[in-house]
Specification:
Layout: E1 21-26, E2 32-33, H1 36-42, E3 49-55, E4 58-63, E5 69-70, E6 77-78, H2 81-86, E7 94-100, E8 105-110, H3 111-125
Antiparallel strand pairs: 1-7, 2-6, 3-4, 3-5, 4-8, 7-8
Length: 131
């Protein structure tokens, strides 16, 4: 009888600190998102001027003294409606927040983009079958 166990995947061991802080968050009906750990990692405070752009399926938020957006007093960042429409973000959608303090940048990934990026890994872990 063939061995039905899946092959083990070698996962590299990180020996130093991970330079990115990750969190899952939910988009509210107004397009607002927040996570205190992410904001703490970035050192962002309410009123912080921000620039919000998008590229390759991700929303990119940077601290920028010339930014026209700001971090709300409540600690929320509002994703502009045109970007929510472009990426199909709706209320209650889950997104991945990735804080990159060295670049004073917050990256927001939709679950659709995460699925696209992770499909090959899922296929490998599922023994060659797509999810």
């Amino acid at each position: 009888m063939p061995d039905a166990r899946l092959p083990l995947v070698q996962v590299p061991i990180t020996t130093g600190p991970i330079p990115v802080t990750y969190a899952m968050a939910k988009v509210d009906a107004s397009g607002r998102v927040s996570d205190q750990a992410v904001l703490h990692a970035l050192g962002w405070m309410p009123g912080e001027p921000l620039t919000i752009t998008a590229e390759d399926g991700a929303v990119i938020i940077r601290r920028d003294p010339r930014g026209v957006f700001t971090l709300a007093p409540s600690g929320y960042i509002q994703i502009p409606a045109p970007l929510r429409t472009r990426y199909g973000l709706r209320a209650r959608d889950r997104i991945l927040l990735a804080a990159v303090p060295r670049r004073a940048t917050l990256l927001i990934y939709t679950t659709a983009l995460l699925h696209q990026v992770m499909t090959a890994t899922h296929t490998t872990l599922l023994g060659g079958e797509q999810p």
